[in-house]
Amino acid sequence: MTPNSSENRVVAAPGSRLSAGTRALAEDRGPAMRVMLVLHGLVTGGAEMMVLHLARELDAAGHAVEVVSLHAGGTSVHEMMERAGLAVVPLGKRRGPDLGVVRRLRAEMGRFRPTVVHTHLPVLQYVLPAARLHGRPLTMVHTVHNLARRETGVALLRRVNRYAFGHGVVPVAVSNEVATSVSQEYGLEAAAVPVVSNGVDLSAFQGPGDRAPGPCSRAHGPLRLLCVARLAEAKNHVLLLEVTARLLASGRDLTLTLVGDGPLRSELEDRARRLGIGSAVRFTGQQQDTASFYREADLFMLLSTYEGQPMSIIEAMASGLPVVATAVGGVAELVDDGRTGTLVAPEAGEVARAVTSICDDPGLYASMSAAAHRAAASYSARAMMEGYVELYR
């Protein structure tokens, strides 16, 4: 099945009732759809937050939306989705292969009657057989959130993806770099891998005009560095701690706030103590309200070893924060080097120099802050939703 085939044209489910607002939307933008968003779990991460933003926008646009998680719920992301009024169905997957998930997913498809199934992360090995058993025509879209080899580290899952992309499932990349990796990994033409950038709720983040005086102001106090990321190896917090230690040793007064949780938390806390910077580093754990942390920061740092298209960088730019980041994955497509921030090699000295050059130059800091805020306007959750709706149809 292809997105443009007649059997995949999306229509409202038979017998469904549309509100006056939804009927008007259908007249303006085509018929309302029934969209099932399927992901692996509801831990806090970029893909999960992207699904939250997408689901909210689809719901606001009048489409019927359901979020299905293979694993159990009860997480902060689950709570955020339910507070937004979204239907969330955790399937309670057991550890390891669980064929019961196929049966439960097929039953949920029969109950919800989706016209679109949009998958995220490694779930196609369960969704494909469930969709076949469901037996009704579906538009199927799969978002690749990371470089193709990084998203599915297991060869079997790459074979599942290869089969899916050759049998009607449309792969969508979050950045051009990710799209290139998908084309190369699965032998697809570039045109077969559309790109839809991630988006956030821009209204939740304050721009530079709403901020306190920047780090170049004498009355400002310590330089406030911020990183919002899962405490996992790929995010390279070890390097960020080394940069912090180097800056403090040079006489720079600063604090580093690490928002997020993950398997490396205790190791990173111990590393900060051994570097002698424990009092300057704050580990906040997982937070639902990240906007307040961006509001209190001066500079955003993300020194990952690989990325797809980080939601946190979009949020930082929307908040008017210059960004210092490694040029990996889709990061270079977000950060305009020298204008909205600085792209660096993963070397402590180079990163420290980038921080110093931005924060010691009032004019550069102000221009980067304003440019970052302007650039973020292109990455709204609404624009992301509209990009996917075009593919769904």
Automatic annotation (TrEMBL):
SUPFAM superfamilies: UDP-Glycosyltransferase/glycogen phosphorylase. Residues 45-203 form the Glycosyltransferase subfamily 4-like N-terminal domain. Residues 221-373 form the Glycosyl transferase family domain. GO terms for molecular function: alpha-1,4-glucan glucosyltransferase (UDP-glucose donor) activity. It comes from the Bacteria. Signal peptide: none annotated. GO terms for biological process: carbohydrate derivative biosynthetic process. Its EC number is 2.4.1.11. It holds the Pfam family Glycos_transf_1. Keywords: Glycosyltransferase, Transferase. It is an enzyme of class 2 (transferase). This is Glycogen synthase. It comes from Actinomyces howellii.
